[in-house]
Amino acid sequence: MPARRKVLVTNDDGIDAPGLVALAAAAVAAGLEVVVAAPARQSSGASAGIIATTRQGQTPIERRQLTDLPGVETYAVDAQPAYIVRAAVRGWLDPAPELVLAGVNHGANLGRAILHSGTVGAALTAGLNGLPGLAVSLDVGWHPAGAPHWSTVGHLLPDVLGLLTGAPRGTVLTLNIPDRPAEALGELRYAALAEFGTVQTTVDRVDDGQLHLAQVETLAPPVAGTDSALLAAGHPTLTALESVREVSGPAIPQWLASAIHRIG
């Protein structure tokens, strides 16, 4: 990508997450001008929410310095990641970023459950505002054998950034990376979204007027060609996403078209 292109790096795991540093460092190594702005605290599951803490109508921002990112402009923001993206492209940062990178998320973002991901929500918000967005996630399992391989993102990022060069306005991609050294990766593959992710949330009991939620692993084998299946086989996966839009043309369900005609 063009040298010194300005990029916003954010996440949903919070300003102190190691994946944020890994992604920002990889972007710096790729020759980009990096600004880091991330939630001051954990914001996983925020989707594209734009909730922020306000004090007298203003959102608190703290200037930070992150280890291993000397000289990189860094902010902790009392807001969810999509809020940060929206603020960055609508007047906060001058000049505004030309690209948004979100992650590296602690855990894969797979299947249609990515709807709930704050990492993916940040990338989709970039796309909604006409910028390319990339969500990056590392498949850190429930019981990792050792420290996560955050640095592996640096092996893949330049090629994925190259794919975004010249892509249509508002292109959004999600990249899932196996938790292994770069030399042990399979080839990068395009993947369809699985019906569900590898983990689902369920209500395991209700008592004393409270809901108790639990996360359980999906037991059904993944469908061939999906992000879940390819990632399990050791392949980094890349999927193009579309933001919310109306159903139009031949895709409008016939029952809905008929019902509207009757009403009319």
Question: Concise description?
Answer:
The chain has 264 residues and is an alpha/beta fold. 24% of the residues lie in helices and 25% in strands. The longest helix is centred in the N-terminal third of the chain and has 12 residues, at 18-29.
Q: How would you describe the overall organization of this protein?
A:
24% of the residues lie in helices and 25% in strands. It is α/β, with parallel strands linked by helices. A 9-stranded mixed beta sheet has the order 3-4-2-1-5-6-7-11-8. The chain has a two-stranded antiparallel ribbon with strand order 9-10. β1, α1 and β2 (33-39) form a beta-alpha-beta unit. The radius of gyration is 19 Å and the shape is globular.
List the helices and strands and how they pair.
Layout: E1 6-10, H1 18-29, E2 33-39, E3 61-64, E4 73-77, H2 81-92, E5 99-106, H3 118-128, E6 133-139, H4 153-164, E7 172-178, E8 189-190, E9 199-207, E10 210-217, H5 227-232, E11 237-241, H6 254-263
Parallel strand pairs: 1-2, 1-5, 2-4, 5-6, 6-7, 8-11
Antiparallel strand pairs: 3-4, 7-11, 9-10
Number of helices: 6
| CATH homologous superfamily placement | Survival protein SurE-like phosphatase/nucleotidase
**Element string (H = helix, E = strand):** EHEEEHEHEHEEEEHEH
3D shape: globular
**What is the helical fraction, as a range of percent?**
10-25%
Low-confidence runs (pLDDT<50, min 5 residues)? none
Rg, alpha carbons: 19 Å
Strand content: 25-35%
CATH topology group: Stationary-phase Survival Protein Sure Homolog, Chain: A
What structural class do you assign from the helix and strand content? alpha/beta
Q: Give the strand order, joined by hyphens, for the main sheet.
A: 3-4-2-1-5-6-7-11-8
For the residues shown, what is the average pLDDT?
90
Compute the separation of the termini in Å. Answer: 52 Å
What is the number of strand segments?
11
CATH architecture: 3-Layer(aba) Sandwich
Largest sheet: 9 strands, mixed
CATH class: Alpha Beta
Number of domains: 1
